[in-house]
Design goal:
The chain is an all-alpha fold. It is globular and about 35 Å long. It has a single domain, classed as Tetratricopeptide repeat domain (Serine Threonine Protein Phosphatase 5, Tetratricopeptide repeat), CATH 1.25.40. The N and C termini lie far apart (35 Å).
């Protein structure tokens, strides 16, 4: 997604077609995050989480928390994914997504 403006336009069209698609909201959030428009990204990811709460959405939310410097929130998202993984399958990609920002070396969930 190297053209966030175009991605925003397209994602908004997808949302018009299917406002209940968590993935459309997550795509829009990713484009906002690339522009460092973090409040908009959080709003879209929270909508996506409410619509389906797939682990990938939580991974993306943790990633945007990490990118925006909200380390505690990123750790909380990682801890939630770890708890979820004990009950059902969680893609390793969703967990790795939170740890991808360069500053997040060795980020680990808080105990609990």
């Amino acid at each position: 997604m190297r053209q966030p403006d175009q991605a925003i336009t397209e994602a908004r069209k997808w949302i018009e077609l299917d406002p209940n698609s968590p993935y459309s909201h997550a795509t829009l959030a990713g484009a906002y995050a690339l522009q460092r428009s973090y409040p908009e990204a959080f709003a879209e990811l929270n909508k996506a989480k409410q619509l389906g709460e797939p682990a990938e959405i939580l991974g993306s939310l943790g990633y945007v928390y990490a990118m925006s410097g909200k380390r505690d929130e990123a750790r909380q998202a990682l801890a939630e994914l770890s708890r979820t993984a004990k009950e059902r399958f969680v893609s390793p990609y969703a967990i790795a997504t939170i740890s991808m920002p360069g500053w997040a070396k060795n980020i680990k969930p808080s105990p609990g």
